[in-house]
Known about the structure:
Layout: E1 5-10, E2 24-27, E3 35-40, E4 46-50, E5 54-58, E6 66-67, E7 78-85, E8 88-98, E9 101-107, E10 115-120, E11 125-130, E12 136-143, E13 146-152, E14 174-182, E15 185-190, E16 194-198, E17 206-209, E18 217-220, E19 230-233, E20 237-240, E21 248-250, E22 258-263, E23 276-280, E24 284-288, E25 296-300, E26 308-313, E27 320-324, E28 329-332, E29 336-341, E30 351-352, E31 363-370, E32 374-382, E33 387-396, E34 399-406, E35 413-420, E36 425-432
Antiparallel strand pairs: 1-29, 2-28, 3-4, 4-5, 5-6, 7-8, 8-9, 9-10, 11-12, 12-13, 14-15, 15-16, 16-17, 18-19, 19-20, 20-21, 22-23, 23-24, 24-25, 26-27, 27-28, 29-34, 30-31, 31-34, 32-33, 32-35, 35-36
Amino acid sequence: MKTIITIFIVIIFYFNSFAQPSPWSEQFSGVSTTLTSVWCNDVNVGWICGYSGTVLRTTNRGINWINLTGNGIPTNVQLINICGFPSDNNSAITAGYLGADTWVWRTTNGGLNWIQVFSQPGGFINSVWMITQTNGFMMGDPVNQRWSLWKTTNGGLNWDSTGLYLPQSGTETGYNNSMICSPPYIWFGTNNSRIYFSSNNGISWNIQQVPEVNSYALGFNIFLPTSVDGFFGGANLYKTTNSGINWSLINSIGSGNFGGITTTPLSTNNPFFQPVWYVRSTNSIYFSSNSGLNWIIDYTNSTSTMIYRYISHAIPGRGIWAVGTFGKITFRDVLYYSIKKNNSEIPDKFCLSQNYPNPFNQSTIIEFSCPVKCNILLEVYDITGKLISVLINNELEAGTYQTKFDAFNLTSGIYFYKLTTEYYSETKKLSLIK
């Protein structure tokens, strides 16, 4: 079989704000309560929970959020985290509290009915994570001087703490949505200058001493097995490059405590683009394209008094949602493109080929050639001249390349794709028919 060299590059829709539209968009929740947690199985199916027993669900990328409040969950309960099931878009688990007691509910029919599957007097479940359709892990504040750690092996119907003993140190507690699971690894944050880490699914625990009292938010590249990049946020931001063995203070912007940190699955594998987002006690979303070296404000909500509470990417990574006070939901699409170098031959001229197939239904291939190493900008515009997406914005070696343009979210019509370098520019037309 002929050998080809493949370069995978993560391309994100970020441009200078004065020249390009924002990649973020507001989605209508239909509620005004505080939204506390979001979990999306993929770019289409997602769950959100919040105060007053609020549960929302989407099956179309958040174009519509269905209000499922009151279907078995009391409306005086404050829900603080929610988790979907892998490969099961109709099942989810959510946890909340009323006073000093905590409850957990489960649905298997898209949220039409919720059944209580767990309760604990004096407890507070911070995070639930379904690792498979049957196996899951749950973490809550300590009760009777031991951390409230639970596992399920039957899809969340029953929860068992056998073999998960972790003693409380002093009066330490945890934080909402502050747990990350990537079997067999688990991390969760505390208010005791430590992050707890397990490498064997919670059977035993290591203390990772951290340089700040509160670890409100954690973000790890959970798709890599070992030595992963990770972040935790308290009042400041810290980074690890060895799964939490060591933590270092890094630059951050904004103010207030951190509420959520998310990375995309390919971030640490990509030399060109290593994206991270976080929210803190403001109405802005912050972004780094280089694993935390530099940060910008990626989006600011028009409601100046709102605060983002949490941010999360869809599993396995296509799409990011941020939620907060006043029922606010903010969405960003993140597209992943593969750029394939066709062969090792050096072309003798610049060339932008006609896309194929053309017309096309959902996706099409665009090929181009560059005879020298240069910066390549490949963009797509609609017929009015509005920028739709940037497919490539990187320096590439001389060669002939091809990339796929996915138009799943566009309507039928005429579009234009443009190749720009410091030496050459060309535009061609493509036709989308659905």
